[in-house]
Amino acid sequence: ISFFGHTYSSEVMIAFPLFMYAILSTKRMLLSTLLVFACVIVAFGGSPREIIYYLLLVIPSLVVLSLIDRRKLANSLINFGKLLTLVISISSFAWLPIILNSESIRPVYTTEESILSYSTLETFSQNQELVNSFRGLQKWWSIVDFSSENTILSIAWFIASWAIPITAFSSLIIIKEADVRRVVSVLGTLSAIILFLVKGVNPPFGGFYSWLLLEAQLPFGLNWIFRDPSKFYNFFGFPIAFLLAIVLLRVISSTNVK
Question: Helical H runs in the chain?
Fold first, then answer.
């Protein structure tokens, strides 16, 4: 269902926030509430495969909770388990036929015309070298080029595109306390792994990414999640947001600003 005229909008504005609410809830949610959430997620969340993206997106949140308050993590995992079970069960009408059809379990990448070919992957990886990926740039498709011809806005964007990630990763140097540093280290590692995926087939180790898409024997043909490297920007934003918040809170506390 394309609620806002564009499926991705409905996923981001309806399905995923409900998913995150259940994960971050500090209390165990009623099964009836989770059932309503599951129905809405299935209706507005796109295809069942989008759940794979949801699972990857909630990892940073679960990691932070595990390091800060394990009692809250227990409730989150219970809510998460119930919600995931309901979503998978309700959406079985879509994924069950694929599982039962053995020929559809693994996609075939044989021709250059296939959307899952190396030439297509190179196109999706254009201008996403490591530095550009670090800055959040993606220009392989003209429709996603949001650069401005206004000089002031262009300069502001250039500064922000460097300042935000640098400030976030500076937490690896600034934070010294053991408990907080443990959180920062985990989020920093997650950010680095995701950054590696965002750059696609660009160096370093670009061949490993193409292997994940075209050759790796992943179950149920999950190679498709690597089709467009820029999709991993969604995952990159979450740990970076946490790291940025930690740094800013440290700066505020050190300057006694209330």
Answer: 7-10, 16-24, 31-44, 50-68, 70-90, 92-100, 118-124, 130-135, 151-169, 171-174, 178-198, 206-214, 233-254
Q: For residue 171, count other CB atoms closer than 10 A to its CB.
A: 23
pLDDT in the model for residue 109: 46
Cis status of the peptide bond prior to 204, with omega within 30 of 0: yes
- In angstroms, the CA 186 to CA 63 distance is 8
Contacts of 146 (CB under 8 A, 6+ apart): none
Q: Which residues contact 19 (CB under 8 A, 6 or more apart)?
A: 37, 41, 54, 58, 83
Residue pair 201/210 in contact (Cβ under 8 Å)? The answer is yes
Contact 220, 210 (CB under 8 A): no
Q: What tokens were used for 84?
A: 């995931």
Q: How confident is the model at residue 166 (pLDDT cuts 50, 70, 90)?
A: very high
What pTM does this model have? 0.67
Residues comprising the chain, all counted: 258
